[in-house]
Each structure stands twice: as structure tokens, then as C-alpha cells.
Amino acid sequence: MIILQVRNFSKTFTIHHIGRQVEAFQNLNFTLHKGEFVLVSGANGAGKSTLLRCLYRTYWPTEGKAIYRSCYGLIDLAHAADIDMVRLRSEEIGHVTQFLHARPRVSALEWVAEPLLHTMAYEDALELARTWLRDFGLKAELWHAYPSTFSGGEQQKVNLARALAVPRRLLLLDEPTASLDALARKALVDRLAQLKAQGVAMIGVFHHPEDVAHLIDREIQILAGPDGHIEMDEDR
Amino acid sequence: MQTLDILVPETSGYSYAFLDEFAKRELRRRMLKAIAIPGYQVPYASRELPIARGWGTGGLQVTLSLVGPSDVVKVIDQGADDSVNAANLRRFIVRMSGAQTTTDTTLATLIQSRHRIPEEVLHEQQTLILQVPDPEPLRAIESNISKAREMHGDADYGLMWLTLYEQLVRYKRVTLGASYPVTVHGRYVMSPSPIPRWDVPKLHQAPFLTVLSAGREKRLYAVPPYTDVRPLEFDDVPFRVENQRNWLCFRTGEHNKFMNEIPLAGGNAIYEISDSGYVNKRILKQPVGNTFFDDNAKFYKEGVLHD
Amino acid sequence: MTKNVALLNGVNTHPFQSLDLHHRHLLPAQIVTTKPLLQATGLVKKYGVIHAVSNVDVLVYPGEVLGIVGESGSGKSTVLRLLHLEDQPDAGKFYFDVSNDQSLNLFELDRAAKRLVRVFNIGMVYQHPHLGLRMKNTSSGNVAERLIVAGNRNYAELRLAARKSLQVSEFPLARMDDLPSRLSGGMQQRVQLAKAIALKPKLLLLDEPTTGLDVSVQALVLDTLKRLQRESGVSMVIVSHDLGVIKMLADRVMVMRNGRVVECGLTDQVLEDPQDAYTQQLVHAKL
């Protein structure tokens, strides 16, 4: 079952104060099936992260469509109403980034539990959050501390726990293994394998694709330059 | 022989009851409106009188526009018929109208009063006229009169209860004494003039007409006979009258009428019943009418005061 | 179903092929089928020759947090006052999902009816506590006032409700009977918040709720707001010139300038990929 179908997808940034347009990627076409794991590759600056952000609508796609099959029906992510995106982000589409945007004065545990509170009681959510933090190897003495004081690796663990604790249909993974120690990386890869088995479609950018090599079904390569396009490697 | 008498203008220049006919008609019209909208403050053209503003001119104008030769007038000041102010007003009314005068509550047809309602129950043929210094119950919470009128218009009285709330929080009891605000006919909140809390329940479903008039503020309002008048109260903190249970009138030996406290040298005090007309009748062993509160402080109507 | 097939086949059925940036927020919702809680259209407010607000539309869904950002004088607070029915606009309509009558334009209600809508459905927190609180009344009294206005005449219940509401807004209960003038800025904002939520309104309007507070207090108040929003599902419109505050709380953002909406979108989109020249300036000026 096709979960995502991207057609003629382009992103151009317009920077008004210098009057310039900067092209990120042009004319991407690909599909993503249920339970499929797709690696996005390309040179630095080719627009790999930008593609993920365009799908999450952190960036406005300039042209094209990204038809997504939600449980509510088909919807074009490039033209969906903001409120629809709010709904999809809280229920179906997850975005794992390298950056932590925790609110100040919120403990790591609460930060992880927060997205769970939509569907479960406070105590249950905390319990589940503890499980995830333990799995990703965050030291228990840090659970009640504020994540903004953490090291990069620790922040990433909190980030991952928060993003992966909730069930999703589509996961956008933006270098989730960066700055992780070996133990946490293994926990992450195990979790991704588990999600893949459950049918979650995943598209991701990885610094070290070899970490997830056994999960990758296909690779999409974004070519730099104005006529960049995608090569699909079906055999991988 | 010519005397100075010829230089004195004839008294026929005055209308009956001092006020000219236009003024009395204005007052009567305003009173009709006030009776039609119980508790609503009706503005009126307050006239100059030969007493100063603040000495009962509001009540006096109402009395003068209602009085006739067959009326019997009683004037009370803080319960007393014999204070200077009451005596002056009474003499002026009688001189200008030819009405009779009395200190006996049961005999009077018009009772003009400052700060008290008599102890004896008034009947349907009697009219009570209360002098009002400040007719606006919302003054303390809204100093802007235009805004206060909007609040009356919207029946926006929440802040009055907030005042009670604050007193309960700070003093554990309601500290409002005189001028205890009341809701009339379930609609307008009204200041019953500075009568003590003791007198407030007397207005509820009363058989008599009450007209309240403020001469300086140029507003009058009324409580028609048999109208609901409820003091503001919380469901669980009922309104209570002053507790004077252990006070004894040194002149009559009675309990449970509203008392004046007379301080004595040395810090003690003795008490006398504030209603002097009632006291005089008791001293002269004359029969008195039914009183609002009996000797056991029980109110004459059931279900008005919680106890 | 036919429509879905058409989409997959690449046939363009969407009316917004090349979108005017400023009207992207008017895209019709497909997934969210609940009616908007609040729908204000064509708001215009003039003060003399100054157009404080020109043709502004506001749409808020149940449980959603909408941020309004802009510099001083951009008209954002005026929009909030219009939504709070404090001011009458020169033009515009305001529908609110409060009664059975969905076609009721709240701007056409009379003063008393507006007051009732406000009391029962809308809570407001002002930047300056003296606008939202009665400084001569106790803190608990300020909260209880809401319930009194709503008709509660039971002292014990009022005490309890005030206590509960203050607790929810994380106010130290030992000080519930202090005058607001004796409280710190953060505590005053909590009293305002407790008052605003006392009747569990559907909509909470916040006008620069943390401006002027210490950074640490600001974080605590923001956290309270977030928790409250999550637990009660109340919709919020929060006005702030502080992009950080908006980022923490809002799902969507409207950027205003000179009384107009220059951009509207998902919070992270507006902050990270602003389309409008002014928004880019604003975002890049952030410390």
C-alpha cells in the first residue's frame, strides 16, 4: 500500500533582503510504501534534510505534491490546511531531528511523556516514558533534570524517546544516530526495526547508513544542482 | 395709623403645602413611575426649600406633595420625634398644610423618617417616606454614575456579592450595618436608606407603601405594598439583624426592640429603645400596636429571617 | 473516493495550485471536520485616521493555540480586544461556537449579552494585571467574582472554586487572600489566569502574558499555560512580541504588521521558513 507519493516536488528559498532565490532540490518523484524504509542520500547541501522538512511542512514546498494516505483519507501535504497538519503531526507523522526544542523548566521525563498524554493518563504516560528513556540508555538520575543542560548525546536520547514513543504511520528521520553512543544506537536501530515490522513507513537521512543497512529497502539519491533528480535503487 | 404690617407681603403668595403645583405634580408623576418600577431610581427636579440640602429635603418634598388637610403626620429622626430636625420639619409641614400631627405610629397616615422604620407594624393606609442621603447602592464599587446606571440596566450586581465575600474573608462576617443593600422585586438592587439591618426585613412584603427620596441627589424610588425585598446574602451565610438580645431598655424594661446605646462614665452603657413614640406609649401604659419583632425577637412574618 | 483516486493519478483537483502566500491559511481543512470554535472575518478597527486593524481574519479550532506576533502598534492587541468583545469593530463578523445559533454575529449582541458570552466562554489574561484584576479585592475574591457573576451565591462553594482554580494555575494557596498589589508579577499573572479559567471557558485570550516577568518566572508561567491547555483542551489565542513564547505554545502563528496579517502558518514553518519579507526580518532579528 502506498503511504506517500511525491510528484514534481521542488523547494526554492526566497531570501528577500538580498533579493536572491536559493534552490534546494528540484522535481523529486518517488513513492513510499507501508513498512518501507527509504534512505535519502546525496552530497552536503543537496537538500536531504530540506526534503524531510518539506514533507513535515516545517518548510513550504514551492511546487509539486506529496500525496499522503492518512487514516482519514488521501491528503496533499504540500497543500494541506495548517490545522490538518497539526492533527497529522500529533497523530500520524513523526519527525526526528538532531535538535532539541524542549521548553525550559520541563524535565526530560515529562518532555518525553507529553505527546503520550493525548491518549493516556498522566501516570501511564510517565511510566512509558521511563521505559523509553531506559531503553535509549539515559541515566536515571537525569530523568528529572532539564534537558537543556544535557550533552548533545543525552539530548538526542530524549529527543528520540519523545519521537518514537508514540505510534506513527510515517516517520521522517533526520540523522537520528548522530552523536549517539553505540548502546543507544543499537536501541534505536532495534526500535526502528520493530516499527518497520509494524508497518510504519520511514524515510531518513543518515550520517552512517551502515548503522541501518539491514533495514534499508531502497535508496533515493538527491543530485545537487538545478536539475537535480532522484535515482532509485530498487535492488538495495 | 399706618404700621409696618402693610409692608409685609401677604402669605397667600405660597401655594398649599409650600411647593407650587407644578413642583408637586412633578413629584407625584415621578413617584408613580417609581412605584411602577420597584427599586428603580427615578431622577426628579428637586426644589429649593427653606431648609438646607441634607436635612431631609428629599423626604420633605415627597411629604409636601402627598399631604392633605385630613392627613396625620409623624416625623421621626433616628427613631425620635423630639429631635430638633424632626420638630422643625413637623412644624413646617403642619403650618404649610394644616394637617394634624402625632407621635403615635398607629395613628399617622404619613410618616417621614430618617434612618428608622417604627417598631409597630404599619398598615395599608399608611405611607412611609424615608429620607435618603445616598440613593446609589453601587457607589462604593462603581464611582462613575453612568457606569453604575448601566450596571443597574444589565442587573449586573455580582460586585455587590463580591463585597460581601471580601468581608467574610477578612472579618469572618458581613460588616455592612446601615444601608444594607436589598433586591427589590427580584430585579433592582436598592439602598434602603441608612436604616439599621434590624429594619430591613420590615420592608419585605410590607402592607404599606415606602417612598425613598434624596433631595440633594435628586432621585427617588419606591417599594410598593406587598413587594419582595430581599437583603443580599449567600445561601449558606444568611442575613442577620443586629444582635441585641441581652440589651434591656432602661425606660421600659423591654428586650428585643432596636436600642440606642447610651455610654456612661466609667465605660459602661445603658440602653433605651430607639423608637421614642413607642417608648412614650409604654411609659404612659397606653395600648401599642403589633410590633415587627415580639419580645422573643421573633419576626411577625414567617420565613423572612432565617434562624 | 473518486476525488482520492484523482489525486493519486496526479489530476489536479485542488483550487490552490499557485497560492498567494498571504491566503494559504484559508486552505480548507480536509481531515479536521470539527467546526472552528471561533471564526472572525473582515475585522476592521479605526482610531480616527489610523487603521489599527485592517481586514483581519481569525480562525481558531477547538483545542488549538493560535499565536499572534508583531511589533508594537501592529494591531495584535486590538484584535484581541475585539475578540474579547471589549471593543466594537468598524466592520467584521465574529462567530463563536457557543450557542445553537451558529449564524449569530457576536458583534451585534447588546452589552449585557456580550457580557454573558464573555463571562461564560472567554477568559482573558492581560499584560498589566491591573487591567484584569481588582486591586482592592483579595486574590481569591478576584477569582470568585467570575462565579458570582455567573450566579453562584454560595460562599463555601465560591471559596472552594477559587481555591481549586488558583491551585490549577499553580498559585501558592497560603496567599490566596492577599491583595494582588502585594503579590509579585508572576503571582499576579497566576491570579489572572485562575480568574480566566474559573468557569472553564472554551477560549482563553492572552495578551503578552509573560512580558515583564523574570525569565525564570516566565518559563514557569509558560509551563502552567501549556499544561492547562493540554489538560483542559481549551483553545488559546496568545499575543506576544516574543517569538520564543509563541514557539513554546502556539500550533499556528499569525504575523501582523500595520494592522494587517502578513503571514500565517504552522509555528515552525513561520519561524524557520518565513515567506514574507517582513516575517524574515522579524525572525532574523530574534536573539
Could you characterize the architecture of this molecule?
The complex is a heterotrimer of chains A (236), B (307) and C (287). Helices cover 30% and strands 29% of the residues of chain A. Chain A is of the alpha/beta class and 236 residues long. The longest helix of chain A has 17 residues, at 182-198. The radius of gyration of chain A is 18 Å and the shape is globular. The model of chain A is unreliable at 232-236 (pLDDT under 50). With 307 residues, chain B is of the alpha/beta class. Chain B folds into three domains: 4-135 and 182-231, Bacterial phosphonate metabolism protein PhnH (Rossmann fold, 3-Layer(aba) Sandwich), CATH 3.40.50; 145-177, no CATH class; 241-306, no CATH class. Chain B has helices at 21-36, 57-66, 84-97, 145-154, 158-171, 276-283, and strands at 42-43, 72-77, 100-101, 110-114, 127-131, 182-184, 188-190, 209-214, 219-223, 229-231, 259-263, 269-273. In chain B, helix 3 links the parallel strand 2 and strand 3 (100-101). Chain B is globular. Chain B starts with 20 loop residues before the first helix and ends in a 24-residue tail after the last helix. The mean pLDDT of chain B is 93. Chain C is globular and about 55 Å long. The N and C termini of chain C lie far apart (48 Å). The longest helix of chain C is centred in the C-terminal third of the chain and has 18 residues, at 215-232. Chain C contains eleven helices and nine strands. In chain C, the strands form two sheets. Chain C has a six-stranded mixed sheet with strand order 5-6-7-3-8-9, with helices on both faces. Chain C is 37% helix and 21% strand. Chains in contact: A-C, B-C.
Distance between the termini of chain A: 20 Å
- The ordered string of helix (H) and strand (E) elements of chain A is EEEHEEHEHHHEHEEE
In terms of quaternary structure, what is this?
heterotrimer
Structural class of chain A: alpha/beta
Strands of chain C, count: 9
Biggest sheet strand order of chain C reads 5-6-7-3-8-9
Class based on secondary structure composition and strand pairing of chain C: alpha/beta
**What is the average per-residue confidence, as pLDDT of chain A, rounded to a whole number?**
87
Task: Give the averaged pLDDT of chain C, no decimals.
Answer: 86
Strand residue content of chain A? 25-35%
Shape of chain A: globular
Q: What strand order characterises the main sheet of chain A?
A: 6-7-8-3-9-10
